[in-house]
Design a protein that fits this description.
Beta-carbonic Anhydrase, Chain A; alpha/beta; 6 strands; globular
Length: about 220
């Protein structure tokens, strides 16, 4: 069986098993969606949002692209954010990066001439790398890429929090920054949308020296 046919067969099996295990599930799914979370993640096939958070269909509103970037002038990402905040009224926006990200690694190298669309897409990430060059140049290549992946999550969180779509939300969603470790499957909180005692956004301690996959308390709580 070719790969495409095997996916269709797997879908049929999943639909049958789900209907047997949870009668009425698809009837409910067909009624509409009410996700409480917008997930902005990387397109990497190893980081599927629903799988790594053990979420069911309908629980996450998902937008994925190379290197989990949010560019305010990009209608693709901005339209997703706008719909999630103004129509779905999500409570949380989570930016999730991951260690070992190919888009992040590419931003530390000369622009790929044979991938012009990718080069344009990651241009803001290349600029971010340039702003942190002094720090990144002092690290081994793999660690520099992983550190930039962390910095990138912080940068996307900043851009999202500054977005008028988020600021003017009614209510305004909380924006969180997480990162996923491929080596152990754990998510780590880099910055939380929940305010600390002083009313400020609660950023996790600097992770530059921490092993990948070090877990943090305070994963997303129920709103």
């Amino acid at each position: 069986m070719n790969r495409a046919k095997s996916l269709l067969a797997a879908n049929a099996a999943w639909a049958s098993e789900t209907a047997e295990r949870a009668p009425g599930f698809f009837d409910g799914l067909a009624q509409g969606q009410n996700p409480r979370v917008l997930w902005i993640g990387c397109s990497d096939s190893r980081v599927p949002a629903e799988a790594i958070t053990h979420s069911a269909p309908g629980e996450l509103f998902v937008h994925r692209n190379i290197a989990n970037l949010f560019q305010p002038g990009d209608d693709n990402g901005a339209s997703v954010l706008e719909y999630a905040v103004r129509v779905l009224k999500v409570d949380h926006v989570i930016v999730c990066g991951h260690y070992g990200c190919g888009g992040v690694r590419a931003s530390l190298l000369p622009p790929p001439a044979d991938l012009p669309h990718v080069a344009r897409r990651i241009a803001p990430l290349c600029a971010l790398a340039g702003r942190h060059r002094a720090t990144l140049d002092g690290l081994p290549a793999d660690r520099a890429a992983d550190r930039l992946a962390e910095l990138n999550v912080h940068e996307q969180v900043r851009l999202l929090r500054e977005s008028p779509i988020v600021r003017d939300g009614d209510p305004a969603p909380l924006v969180h920054g997480w990162i996923f470790s491929l080596s152990d499957g754990l998510l780590k909180v880099l910055t939380s949308g929940y305010p600390d005692a002083d009313g400020r956004s609660a950023d996790a301690a600097d992770t530059a020296g921490m092993p990948h996959g070090t877990s943090r308390a305070g994963a997303l709580q129920a709103a």
